[in-house]
Write a structure and sequence with these properties.
With 245 residues, the protein is mainly alpha-helical. The protein has one domain (2-240). Helices cover 78% and strands 0% of the residues. It contains six helices and no strands. The chain has helices spanning 2-24, 30-66, 71-105, 110-157, 181-208, 217-236. The longest helix is centred in the middle third of the chain and has 48 residues, at 110-157. The protein is elongated and about 70 Å long.
């Protein structure tokens, strides 16, 4: 998961650079580049929320089931405190940036143009810094999960760890790699959340940009595809859904 997030962060950073370049050159497609890149960045931050929410619950369940060291739970909570606020601020700054971009497109005032430019530089720097913080946290969290699996395997079987299936919320089987199934289920929920938020882009074009010619059917198609993919993943990995007694 850390490698996947790292690659996506690098791609998003490059897209930030392209958006700034076409913006200063006055390319008409700058709005689409900027809006698409901002949405991509916001999705990455939301993915981090899903990762740490899912793994945090699984860690707590595993520690409680096998009476392991509670420091593991404290460590995962520490990651949330370190990562969640910057990720939330990053999304908030991106919302301001896209709103300023819409205002610039409908105004000829120079000060608004420069405000949008300076805010873009600040937002990009803050997001790239947050990407690096999230990448390190995901990697450390993955190592903690593997160490936790090793400890649970020793307690249960008194043999070297062997990563197999673990079903949160039921009688634990041989311990699995929690960095896969639980995250896939969380990603399915994330896609469902994203399917509804796709319409925010449509609302942005229609209300903020004032483009009444924006067709609705592409947004319906994307929303349906995301919802279907999320529903499929949640159904296939339903056994990894945390349950509390």
């Amino acid at each position: 998961m850390a490698k996947f997030f790292g690659v996506c962060s690098i791609v998003n950073t490059l897209l930030f650079g392209v958006s700034v370049a076409v913006g200063f050159k006055g390319v008409p497609s700058h709005m689409l580049w900027g809006l698409g890149t901002s949405i991509f960045a916001a999705l990455l931050h939301c993915l981090v929320f899903s990762i740490f929410t899912g793994s945090g619950k699984d860690t707590r369940l595993l520690v409680e089931d096998w009476s392991l060291n509670k420091e593991y739970v404290k460590k995962t909570k520490a990651f949330k405190k370190d990562v969640f606020p910057p990720a939330l601020y990053s999304i908030f700054f991106l919302l301001i940036l896209t709103s300023l971009g819409g205002a610039v497109s409908n105004s000829s005032q120079k000060w608004l143009y420069w405000l949008h430019g300076f805010w873009a530089v600040f937002t990009i720097i803050y997001n790239v810094k947050t990407f690096w913080l999230e990448f390190k946290a995901i990697g450390l969290n993955s190592n903690i999960l593997k160490e936790l699996n090793f400890q649970a395997s020793q307690v249960t079987y008194n043999v070297p760890a062997q990563l197999e299936e673990f079903t949160p919320g039921s009688d634990p089987q041989r311990v699995a790699d929690l960095d896969w199934g639980t995250h896939v289920y969380a990603f399915g929920r994330f896609l469902g959340f994203l399917s509804w938020n796709t319409w925010l882009v449509y609302i942005y074009f229609r209300l903020i940009m004032g483009d009444i010619r924006t067709p609705w059917w592409p947004f319906l198609l994307v929303s349906a595809l995301l919802f279907g993919a999320g529903f499929f993943l949640k159904t296939q990995y339903r056994r990894y859904r945390p349950t509390f007694n």
